[in-house]
Each structure stands twice: as C-alpha cells, then as structure tokens.
Amino acid sequence: MADLDVHSARAYFLQHVIPEYESLQETLNDGFFGMRREIRALGRAAEACLHLADHVARDSTCNSTIEGAPKAKLYIEALTQRSSAFALVRDVANCFKHGAITRAGARVASLDSFHERWVLVRYEDDSGFYYDIRKTVMVQTLSGAMASAEKIVRLALNAWCEELVTLGAIPSPAQIDDGKPLYIARSKCPPTPGITFLCEEGEHFSAKPMEAIYDSEHAVLRAPSRGDRIKTNVRAYFQVHPSRFSSTPRHLHRTHLSILSVEGDGTPQ
Question: Rounded to an integer, what distance in angstroms lies between the CA atom of residue 13 and that of residue 9?
Fold first, then answer.
C-alpha cells in the first residue's frame, strides 16, 4: 500500500469529494423527504467539488503548472473558464456560502434557484404500467434551463477525474457509485409506491411532486408529453416531529398515513 499524504489532493478527492457525492445519492434514494435534507446533501457535495481546487493548488506533487499556486484564486478562475461543469458546481457551492451570487458570468442567482422535488416515475413492461418514487433537487440556471443536483455534481466529478489524471494526482479515473439506477424492474417496486415526509411542528413544509416517464429506448427519464397517462395511488407517510422549541422529546414523533391519488395526461399545468 502506498504511503500517501493524508492532506494531498488525491486523499481529499477520494476521502471527501467522492463520499459526499455518494452520500447525496444515498439521501436522494432513502425514501424520506423533507427538513431540507436533500438541499443540505447537495450543498456538501458541491462545496467539496469547489474546495478540491484549494487542495490541488497546495499539493506540491501536482501544482507545478498551476498559476498562482499555492493560492487557488487564479486556478479556480481558470477552471471556471475551461470547464462548464466546474463553473456550474462552483456557483451552486457559493449559493450555499453567500445565499446569492453577484459575480459577473455566474450561472445561478441564489438559493431561491434550488427546488426539492419527489418524483413519481412511470415504467412500462409487458404487463403494463408500474410506478416508483425517487427524489431530486432541480437547479434553475439564469438561462432558464433546469438541471438536476446529481447530474451537476456527477459532471463536476467527471471533470475533476480528467483534471487530476492530467496533473498526475491520480493514475486513472476513479470508480464512483451512482446510487439507484434509472431503470427499476417491476419486481423491485412495491404495488403501491410510498414515501415518508418529514415535518416539524410550526415550521415550513413543502413537498411538491414531479412526474417522469422512463424512456427505455434512450435509457433516460423524461417529462410526460401530452397524452401520456399517469394514474396511481401513493402511500404518503407524514412523520411529524415536535418543535425544537417545545419540551416534548424529539423522538416522540407522530406518523400519519394518507393515500394520495395522482392522475395526469401530460397536459402542462
């Protein structure tokens, strides 16, 4: 086993950046929605991607060609100019740090651009339609385009793998766990999809859904088109926790079950 510096760029990438992305994936697929958990997981993953630039600039084993090293300011600007993936994840990370961004050329305006959603996905096999639930955080860029949190961070990781290989910090692109696959077989889905909403007494709660259809031809999730039939029930568990300002212990939460009826035909709302 190689005797590696625990503070090297390689160590930070392997022991912090990748685990934060994999933790984001775990959060998006754990079946619990609410209390800003998805937003927090995105923030940690994006910030890790941005802070890796500081570690690279300080790493004497790979920073010989980095202008301004060991300071990272010029390096971050250079990465922003030549990597759209890094530029976007930088803006996402800085939204969490500053709340809003005023930098010229920024692609995201503020934390108001982040939208947590639970997603009802329709699949189809020889027996007909069936459904599953996943979660995402959609990020609206200043151009009006929407991008998912997991895709933003994954593309930044791809860019970092290429950069670190070029700098000699890692020997090859790293293996990264992308979590739950887009396609889920009927045998892996419950007859009635379900999700648990986490709430806190007296605090804001929002649980807006999205609908998606698995496109087997292109192996992607797409938005429903006009005429796409979506009809199912969802088992919604509302787990209500006592206020942090009350004397009731936090573990004494209440859980209520509701059956939500979801029906649509792809018509824009």
Answer: 6
Residue matched to tokens 């919604």: 236
How many domains is the chain partitioned into structurally?
A: 1
Domain that holds residue 172: 9-264
Say what the pLDDT of residue 1 is.
Answer: 41
Please say if the pLDDT value at position 78 is more than 70.
Answer: yes
| Number of residues written out for the chain | 269
Which whole number is the average pLDDT over 106-119? Answer: 94
Residue 1 lies in a domain: no
pTM: 0.91
Residue 55 belongs to a domain = yes
Q: Are 32 and 196 in contact (CB under 8 A)?
A: yes
Q: Is 7 helix (H, G, I), strand (E, B) or coil?
A: coil
Residue whose entry in the numeric block shows the structure tokens 């912090």: 16
Q: Is residue 269 part of a domain?
A: no
Q: What is the mean pLDDT of the chain?
A: 93
Q: Largest Cα–Cα distance in the chain? A: 61
